[in-house]
């Protein structure tokens, strides 16, 4: 869709550049789409690149539900050094010769961090501790603990192990990895914990997000490309890709949009958010099943 004066409703899949915060990308998109009503579905660290899902206008109502979906990454973990931020942006806090770490030990360490695990987020993160961002407390030199929380690492694979030497002369190992995980998982915390488990320390040196839910890198566009041609995925198409679909007739569509709680077919029980579509494929609402009836999460039609 070509840029117009009236901002279109829909999702924009951005290939985020390194060095930009997610808020920076939102600010850029506000200029490109000529609207203040832009949001994102889940942040991506400044160092990281790849898929960042933005919503424009009415599509911002989808974002909170999309943020909860599974994510996929490729990255590089450096064994042999810890950093203040658990990634390459922070200063090195310790160095240990990692040249004796075997592939078998790496695989065992990765296996321990796969599945349903308890993870302590990085201290330099956006997690709130008593209402204050963790990174703010860390930068002020405060001593504090972040409670561990459950996350799911569906897949954690090592594709390559490369020997190297860090800038301070420490022998290191660089692991090329891919991770599929639940929302809220910190890949740099996985790098930190893998290094800790192996006794040599670890941090993340590169990260690229290749998927958020059903939205993949092949449909993402750079900010430069979007400046030339604002490619927007219509709300109905975005909902079809991300949520189970429930088609209703004209009468039910009218009742639903008037706030009536419709009875839902049993097949949607426990499905989470469900997209409701009326005649002619009109996207009406996101609902969830509650005691057999449809509870509205967001109304569009």
TrEMBL record:
<dbReference type="GO" id="GO:1990481">
    <property type="term" value="P:mRNA pseudouridine synthesis"/>
</dbReference>
<dbReference type="Pfam" id="PF01509">
    <property type="entry name" value="TruB_N"/>
</dbReference>
<dbReference type="InterPro" id="IPR020103">
    <property type="entry name" value="PsdUridine_synth_cat_dom_sf"/>
</dbReference>
<dbReference type="GO" id="GO:0003723">
    <property type="term" value="F:RNA binding"/>
</dbReference>
<dbReference type="Pfam" id="PF09142">
    <property type="entry name" value="TruB_C"/>
</dbReference>
<dbReference type="GO" id="GO:0160148">
    <property type="term" value="F:tRNA pseudouridine(55) synthase activity"/>
</dbReference>
<dbReference type="InterPro" id="IPR032819">
    <property type="entry name" value="TruB_C"/>
</dbReference>
<feature type="domain" description="tRNA pseudouridine synthase II TruB subfamily 2 C-terminal">
    <location>
        <begin position="243"/>
        <end position="300"/>
    </location>
</feature>
<protein>
    <recommendedName>
        <fullName>tRNA pseudouridine synthase B</fullName>
        <ecNumber>5.4.99.25</ecNumber>
    </recommendedName>
</protein>
<feature type="domain" description="tRNA pseudouridylate synthase B C-terminal">
    <location>
        <begin position="188"/>
        <end position="229"/>
    </location>
</feature>
<comment type="similarity">
    <text>Belongs to the pseudouridine synthase TruB family. Type 1 subfamily.</text>
</comment>
<dbReference type="GO" id="GO:0031119">
    <property type="term" value="P:tRNA pseudouridine synthesis"/>
</dbReference>
<dbReference type="Pfam" id="PF16198">
    <property type="entry name" value="TruB_C_2"/>
</dbReference>
<keyword id="KW-0819">tRNA processing</keyword>
<feature type="active site" description="Nucleophile">
    <location>
        <position position="45"/>
    </location>
</feature>
<comment type="function">
    <text>Responsible for synthesis of pseudouridine from uracil-55 in the psi GC loop of transfer RNAs.</text>
</comment>
<dbReference type="InterPro" id="IPR002501">
    <property type="entry name" value="PsdUridine_synth_N"/>
</dbReference>
<dbReference type="InterPro" id="IPR014780">
    <property type="entry name" value="tRNA_psdUridine_synth_TruB"/>
</dbReference>
<dbReference type="InterPro" id="IPR015947">
    <property type="entry name" value="PUA-like_sf"/>
</dbReference>
<dbReference type="InterPro" id="IPR036974">
    <property type="entry name" value="PUA_sf"/>
</dbReference>
<feature type="domain" description="Pseudouridine synthase II N-terminal">
    <location>
        <begin position="31"/>
        <end position="187"/>
    </location>
</feature>
<dbReference type="InterPro" id="IPR015225">
    <property type="entry name" value="tRNA_psdUridine_synth_fam2_C"/>
</dbReference>
<keyword id="KW-0413">Isomerase</keyword>
